[in-house]
Specification:
With 547 residues, this protein is of the alpha+beta class. It is built from 17 helices and 21 strands. One of its GO terms (cellular component) is Mon1-Ccz1 complex.
Amino acid sequence: MRKLNVCWYVYTHESRLVLLASGMQCRTFTGFQLSSAGIVRLPKFDMAMAKPEANSKPVLAAEDVYIVTVYGRIYCLQVDRVAMLLHSYRFYRDAVVQQGSLPIYSRKIAVSVVDNVLLVHQIDAKVVILYDIFADSRAPISAPLPLQSRGFPRSYSSSSRSSGKDGECSEVNNKIDHEGIIYGDNWTFIVPDLICDVSNNFLWKIHLDLEAIAASSSETPSVLEFLQRRKLEAIKAKQLCLGIARTVILERRPVSMVSKAIDVLVSSYSLSLKTGSYFKGIKTESTSSGVAKTSVARSSTDVSTSRIDGTSIRHESTAGVDSEYPSRASTFSASESEENASSAPLRTDSRDLQLGGGKVDRVNLTGAHSSGPTDNPVFVNISEQQDSELTSPAISPDEMYKFVFAAVEEEMVGDPSYLVSIIVEFLRSTNMEKIKVHPNLYVLAIQLLARNERYAELESFVTNKILEPSKEVALQLLESGRQNIQTRKLGLDMLRQLSLHHDYVSLLVQDGRYNEALRYARKYQVIVVYKSANCFSKLYSSIYGFY
């Protein structure tokens, strides 16, 4: 290996990748990835840098380059302060491909990755812009969100208990004041999801508040797609998706928009079944990136915790945000050369990789103070996550019926035609994915159509197999057919098609069609026992008439 004139380097343990910068402007890079099979040398490449108006040549600094891992893919992000762009490069074994650029609105920025979400901190404006680069669109997934500090460990004050009460109160107030400082001058961002506050001896961990993110966007299908890709808080994402689905139906949004939202949920569930991710036991592993278990830095002891809770201090510093963000479209576009690259994408070992953090409330920070040892770390109550086996936010058709359609039907008033249209769209989507639907959803559709006396449409649904035959559907057709003979006949025919001979004979007897019931019972060898003496006498008289 020949020698390189290295100006500086960037390395992350998460990616096992080191980039060596060289050249007059430090824009020529050579990469090496460390793996169990050995050292993989990546092709040398140059980063793009815009030319300033003056003749001076800008020099790239180490703090302008970030190595991040998103969805198992390794990227390099480079800040171009002249062009005010964040360039992205994706690593392959035999190529490094520029993916495009994202606009930045602050002279000073930082980058984090939480649960495969790219966070670009606009430090001057004290806000964060979030990107989900899995999607084709490179637009932000929400409006710019401010950071919010939350989770001061209650145990930090244990070291001050030996002092007087007044001194303890003074120290507590001092610590809380430090907690309220957002984007301090001495903050150091550590990829993927940590912030080190050197001046106040804090180590913050960034989390995502999915509820705040969902509330800040009006693009329902896009929000659902984003939530369905979240893994670290699958239960929360699932609850939000169910709530959004209920809301758009109750608000009677356009059927076309609700249909797109339904397609997102159904396709996500179908994919989770194919990949086997719908039901899997939660495996909490302590990884080098400290995600499932966070090693919280202290001066004389390390405390392994899953999320530290405490006082919540909201710091809303969004004044002037609108003026800070001109309405210009993202210039991030996929490079065509990526499709032509003959090499496989460079990834990290999944056994060593755990991406992202957990919960940004506008983006949340949970902190640890290095004031001394403690034996009583405070844990967030995450029993709901630990007890559940769900690792995917995908929503099954049974859950859609129980938590969306049945709940909405109880709250909706007026003409049920809109809800019927939504149910039909859901049935269309599940049929395309070849997913079985809960029979009670068909029953609900029959009830809604019969309530509005739309019997002709109901008959069309049955004959065209929009409503799949089942015993539940047949019995509901019989129930709704009390006001319409043709509908009741549809129910009887369905019982016969399903070979539910006993139920069919029983209903014929209830209708007084004794001879027909006897013929059918003899043909299919159906044994029916009746305890009613009146019914038995009628059958007895029919037997003589029959023979």
